[in-house]
Specification:
By secondary structure, the protein is mainly α. The chain has helices at residues 77-81, 88-99, 105-109, 116-141, 152-178, 186-196, 198-206, 212-238, 243-268, 277-290, 295-305.
Length: 306
């Protein structure tokens, strides 16, 4: 007897006697579905859990029900939330990769650039620049007069660091898009510049010393390390443009970063730089002494000029 449509086969004699029926209670017939097909031909027999997110669109190519494939617009909070989707361990791992660049930093990001690390790194650099710049100015005073904190250093540090970290990568991304680079990513550019500021924390902690040679050496080393980090990781992206264009962009990136390093040295470490709270007073005092002998000539000149 064929077992088509059944799971259990039982032999029955002509009288319908099943013979030994002690096992009748254990015998059950179950209809099988070996040859039956679901109503939707080709549909999976086990439906996936709708609560689990998938990176692939569902049948028919529709991804409207998939939250991970929705576009986030610039004016929505989700657009900025995706840039902070990292934990502390991941940020520390990226900081270590910045100090010890064994692999390309864009590969370390694994397609998930963040702004959490860059924002905190830039803020830390600003605070340390203000503190060490204040110490450097205090040393430059040499106890000649009462020292007063110059909070313009704080606003200046914020403008310099935040401005450089935000506007330069945005401008670079715009230029790359203008020249048709498809690999340029705005968040990756901002993330790259943000983590490159990590070296300036160590530089700021040392460059306040009263020895000029130490200051210049530390700033030069910080510039070399951060410039190497930027150029090494930007080169694969810049090389997607024409050869001449990529070389020009590399030079521009190098010069802008050199200007950033010079601004840090000149504006915040006044012990050996021409900028400081006492420089203007010293210059005015020196100018007054130098002009003391020509005071009469100055009065006559003012009379002639009306």
């Amino acid at each position: 007897m064929a077992n088509r449509g059944y799971d259990v086969v039982v032999d029955v004699d002509q009288e319908g006697d099943l013979g030994h029926t002690d096992l009748q209670e254990d015998l059950e017939f179950h209809s099988s579905n070996f040859e039956t097909q679901p109503s939707g031909r080709g549909a999976p027999k086990i439906q996936p859990d709708s609560s689990s997110a998938s990176f692939l669109p569902g049948p028919g190519g529709s991804s409207s029900n998939n939250p991970t494939s929705r576009k986030h617009y610039l004016w929505s909070l989700n657009f900025y939330a995706q840039a902070f989707d990292v934990d502390t361990a991941e940020v520390l791992r990226r900081c270590v990769s910045t100090i010890y660049p064994r692999a390309n930093f864009l590969d370390v990001l694994e397609g998930n650039p963040d702004l959490y690390g860059p924002v905190w790194i830039a803020t830390t650099v600003i605070v340390i620049l203000f503190l060490t710049g204040t110490i450097s100015q205090y040393q430059a005073m040499k106890g000649e007069e009462h020292f007063a904190y110059d909070f313009k250093l704080l606003s200046g540090a914020a403008g310099l660091v935040y401005g450089y970290t935000a506007f330069v990568p945005v401008g670079l991304w715009g230029v790359l898009k203008w020249y048709g680079s498809e690999s340029a990513n705005l968040l990756e550019c901002c993330c790259l510049y943000g983590y490159s500021n990590l070296v300036w924390i160590a530089v700021s902690l040392v460059a306040w010393s009263p020895w000029g040679i130490v200051n210049f050496t530390v700033v030069a080393l910080g510039f070399a390390a951060s410039a190497f980090f930027l150029l090494r990781n930007l080169y694969p992206v810049l090389s997607t443009t024409e050869t001449k264009t990529s070389k020009i962009l590399l030079v521009v990136v190098f010069l802008l970063h050199a200007g950033f390093a010079i601004a840090i040295k000149v504006l915040f470490f006044a012990a050996t730089s021409p900028v400081g709270p006492n420089k203007g007073a010293d210059k005015d005092a020196g100018k007054g002494v130098a002009d003391g002998g020509s005071e009469g000539k100055g009065d006559m000149l003012r009379m002639l000029m009306g």
